[in-house]
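Continuing from the previous page of notes. For each protein in this section, the sequence appears first, followed by its structure tokens. Read the first protein now.
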Amino acid sequence: MTRRSPIPNDLDKPFLDACNEDRLIVQYCSACDQFQFPPEASCNGCDSADNFAWREVSGRGTIYSYGVVYDTPIASLHEDLPFNAVVIDIDDCPGINMMTYLPGTPVDEVPIGAQVDVIFVPTAATGQKVPEWQVIR
């Protein structure tokens, strides 16, 4: 699977730096006791910008849903078509979902409700690691 190389900005640099260390972190607001992803400058729950911290999470989750991508305007992904686009509920971050390709799972054979664990995969262009999930066998 061709992975696009994200270019860190001020908001997501801590997240991407942690990925390079094989750690998954998520923004957490202590004012309203809420996790938030993707990163934002202020809390979506209480609009606070002063009560954010990054919290390391386990990376374990459950497959919530998926779709199969058969066509895309992104030329670099054409050789990988079709592929699974999977939504993961992160176990220790209520309300947080992340997307993955679910490497190692055949197209349209995604086991809804299965437990998954995060892995960190380097991208070809920059070596920046990105999180993906795989089914726990």
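Done with the first. The second protein uses the same format. Note its length before scrolling.
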Amino acid sequence: MRVPARTKGDALKRYVRYLQLSLSCISGTAQFVTGPRPYGGEDALALTTKPERMRLRCEDETYVFLAAAQGFHFEADPDFEGEWKVKTDEYAYSVFTSDEESGQLFAWHWHPAAYRADCHIHVGARQGEERALYRYHVPSGRVAFEEVLRFLLEEFHVESARDDSEEILTNSQTRFEAFRTWPGVRRPPSDS
């Protein structure tokens, strides 16, 4: 059931609620926090995980770390008159082998207001090579936060924090895809 967002605060609560629910699939304690973004105007906000790098236990008793951040602003909902929605402006999701920057394995980025407008992935490998892989921007499509969580659960075998993780991630991603306003992607107006 769609929850109307008559105010910017309602839109923010709705947006964070679904991302937090997805985050609860891998951590029972991590939270998303919001704050002002240093650029982008009055309504430009940032959403980051706390702790900044979450330590996640894998089934083989090793650990990986996840950092996630999004930048966003509010806009009038184009399909529901008198309502607000959150519009994502950028994202950065990073997986690390340690709590150190040098331990980065993967990073999914989209930051069009910076120097690069396309969605891309960075791959680790910083061992002093002349052409260090992390410097390359491997093209990708838009990556939903839920896809990164599913990647961690399925490929790294991160221990799930919930029995219903697959259902939650599927429902949350389906909802995101139904209501996103990505350039070139418009959803048909509906009340769902």
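What the second structure shows: The longest strand covers residues 63-76. Confidence is low (pLDDT under 50) at residues 184-192. We return to this in next week's lecture.
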